[in-house]
Write a structure and sequence with these properties.
Two copies of one chain form a homodimer. With 420 residues, chain A is an alpha/beta fold. Chain A folds into two domains: 3-175, Carbamate kinase (3-Layer(aba) Sandwich), CATH 3.40.1160; 260-413, VC0802-like, CATH 3.30.2130. In chain A, 33% of the residues lie in helices and 27% in strands. Chain A contains twelve helices and 19 strands. In chain A, helix 6 (153-164) packs parallel to helix 8 (214-223), helix 7 (198-206) packs antiparallel against helix 8 (214-223) and helix 9 crosses helix 10 (326-338). Chain A is globular and about 75 Å long. Chain A binds chain B through residues 16, 19-20, 50, 53-54, 56-58, 61-62, 64-66, 68-69, 72, 75-76, 78-80, 82-84, 86-87, 93-94, 96, 98-99, 120, 144-146, and chain B through 16, 19-20, 50, 53-54, 56-58, 61-62, 64-66, 68-69, 72, 75-76, 78-80, 82-84, 86-87, 93-94, 96, 98-99, 120, 144-146. Chains A, B: It catalyses: L-aspartate + ATP = 4-phospho-L-aspartate + ADP. Chains A, B: GO terms for molecular function: aspartate kinase activity; ATP binding. Chains A, B: InterPro entries: AceGlu_kinase-like_sf, ACT-like_dom_sf, ACT_Aspartokinase, ACT_dom, AKii-LysC-BS, Asp/Glu/Uridylate_kinase, Asp_kin_monofn, Asp_kinase.
């Protein structure tokens, strides 16, 4: 039998009715001839409740016990889903991480997969079971303790199972009906994509299109797992949703596939710092230690003198990070300065910026995307504060009040409202 | 290190404050020099919620999945208790059934212990851990599935661990402060017992003194585990509560230790049935199949003729069962009659009776207990409907409206308000 992996997130299994609704979708795939592995999250809100209890019990908790507590929500959903399927006449069995077993590292709270042996589940399929309902987000450490994979771990569980079981596809059921050219709340011209490449999806996910966890897309790309994103709440068929797949499967790609945005960014400039080898490490080491997720980095070329005691070249260093990490970033920089590790004249913090990016694998072979982007923004008098580029993405930081306008303008400029 | 087992029921761990309170009691025992095994129930209400979800999802549920779902409540409490202890500076680790492992039979929903190997937990004690917090009520089947032990299974888990680890004592923390000579709500003269024998406790538990599950007392008796019942909510010390122990440990026992009652009983009489070998089996077989818990059984000696077609001795058969099983019992008897298995002239059902019993190991060597009991009841004009006796117990069925009076009268008659 071909194997299909289906994953249902927390809102898709939020109560017994929704579990029943998800079970209907599973049943339909069984009827189409698949052996199905269903990955479930906890009922929405449950994991948060457990996390709150842990935090209230022990603010600096032992991650082993954290994992033992918070993994229980998925176990409940897995059992209920198996029962619901049985009730509908589909032979199903639930699986907790240790029963499969889902072998992971010992990094509690952020464990990584080591291996997912197929024997136990394959044996059940051979017995005639049609569905294995697996509790997502959890695994088993070499020490025999329960681990969790960190937030969004259920997507990653689904992809890992699809890889291990050589599934025909991994369907991620969620509360949106696919991947869009941009956020439909910003422009009604946003259009659902039939297909998107892993690379583009990665850029979109990490840029704030929060449909799929970055890690799950990385894993899917590495093992060439065909992903499909589709809605739990709509009627769905074989053509629903968006397929995330290898670039080669996408025949004629547009130059730009989508416009992403990230609203709450901050821009931090270290004004006038010594321009010497090692200065970047001296800045970004402490930031990493403080848990600041630095995104864009720009270093100005400068020839001005540092100060009388330090003759030689100086520069300015600018980076961006999420607004809610500014306080930590500021503290880290001030401590690094106080400790003599770095020196700067001034720390300039702008917390009113957003990031807008255009993404597309077609960019690789098309010049002029950047020029077209800058021109379009300029025509609307939107000032660009920072620019960063990768092979398939161009991002700019702009004033937050222009964010929606910029997204709409770029969506139009690259013709994303028209099917290719 | 001597080992102590401490068990906390659902009301004792109902919220984070109560878990903290229970953890304080554990810490105190660690400070007294014990390695402690803590058995926890689910936070009160949690298991009921899970059971409700299972029933709503699948009325005729697969017991394997039922067990997978309902066992999760204990896992949460075990993790939270371990975290709380760590927070108080006590090195603790949580254990789910499969991690110990608690090996049971495959009888899902009502599994029985097969073995509890000590290695894993002993190894942790050897590493310096002081407390193992074990999720009660659950185990692992030979097939690698989660089992549950049935309601009240956490008491049984505690006793099984005390036996396996040769614990000095098994302390059952609950919402009462010990075992009383009778229900304190019925007479203020009820007195807490310092000690009671296993045998007496068994009779009291099965007679409706619902402090300890019958099965846990049976297990404790078999393995000679010293039990102590005490309150989670009071300040407790080494002399608190009631010790349940071997008869030999109780120096000078009173003739009668307690008066038990069971309010909602029913009395069913099969009037005029054929008195022949096998008639009892023909009656009580169908009742057992229908899940009726028959308690007292009385057969009248009778010489009257059955009917013209069946010359020979006839009799009346009377039995008691809980009121809420009367409908089932009636149906089973009517079907047996319709099927020709038994015959009776009339089914007489009295749902307005209660059972009152006096219990005491001293009865064995003292004649006249029954006479004293009947005399006391007679003096209050309480009519006895059915009598049943065992080696250490005499029970009577009486009209329900006399139940409180009977308990008070017997408590006085046997001098239970005075310490021995």
């Amino acid at each position: 039998m071909p194997i299909l992996v289906m994953k249902f997130g927390g809102t898709s299994v939020a109560d017994l009715d929704r579990i029943a609704n998800a079970a209907e979708k599973v049943k339909r795939e069984v009827e189409r001839g698949y052996d199905v592995i269903v990955i479930v999250s906890a009922m929405s809100g449950k994991t948060n409740e457990l996390v709150r209890w842990v935090n209230e019990t022990s603010p600096f908790y032992d991650a082993r016990e954290y994992d033992a507590v918070v993994s229980s929500g998925e176990n409940v959903t897995a059992g209920l889903m198996a029962l619901r399927l049985q009730e509908m006449g589909v032979s199903a069995r639930s699986w907790q991480g240790w029963q499969v077993p889902i072998n992971t590292t010992s990094a509690h709270g952020a464990a990584r997969f080591e291996s997912i042996p197929r024997e136990n589940i394959d044996a059940k399929f051979a017995e005639g079971f049609k569905v294995a309902v697996v509790a997502g987000f959890q695994g088993l450490s070499p020490e025999g303790r329960i681990t969790t994979l960190g937030r969004g771990g259920s997507d990653t569980t689904a992809v890992a199972f699809a890889a291990a079981f050589e599934a025909e596809r991994c369907d991620i059921y969620t509360d949106v009906d696919g991947i869009y050219t941009t956020d439909p709340r910003i422009t009604s011209k946003a259009r659902k994509l039939d297909r998107i490449s892993f690379e583009e999806m990665l850029e979109l996910a990490s840029l704030g299109a929060k449909v799929l966890q970055t890690r799950s897309v990385e894993l899917a790309m590495r093992y060439k797992v065909r992903l499909r994103v589709l809605s739990s709440f709509d009627e769905t068929d074989e053509t629903s949703g968006t397929i995330v797949c290898d670039e080669e499967e996408i025949m004629e790609s547009k130059v730009v596939s989508g416009v992403a945005h990230s609203r709450d960014e901050a821009k931090i400039t270290l004004f006038t710092i010594e321009d010497r080898p090692g200065i970047a490490a001296a800045i970004f080491g402490p930031l990493a230690d403080a848990g600041v997720n630095v995104d864009m980095i720009v270093q100005n070329i400068s020839e001005k003198d540092y100060d009388d005691d330090h003759p030689g070249a100086v520069t300015d260093m600018t980076f961006s990070c999420p607004v809610d990490q500014v306080a930590r970033a500021k503290k880290a920089m001030e401590e690094a300065k106080a400790g003599g590790k770095i020196n700067y004249e001034e720390l300039i913090i702008d917390t009113d910026v957003s990031k807008v990016s255009v993404v597309g694998i077609g960019m690789r072979s098309h010049a002029g995307v950047a020029a077209k982007m800058f021109q379009a923004l300029s025509a609307d008098n939107i000032n660009i504060k920072v620019i960063a580029t990768s092979e398939i993405k161009i991002s700019v930081l702009i004033d937050r009040r222009y964010m929606e306008l910029a997204v709409q303008t770029l969506h139009d400029a690259f013709g994303l409202d028209r099917a290719s």
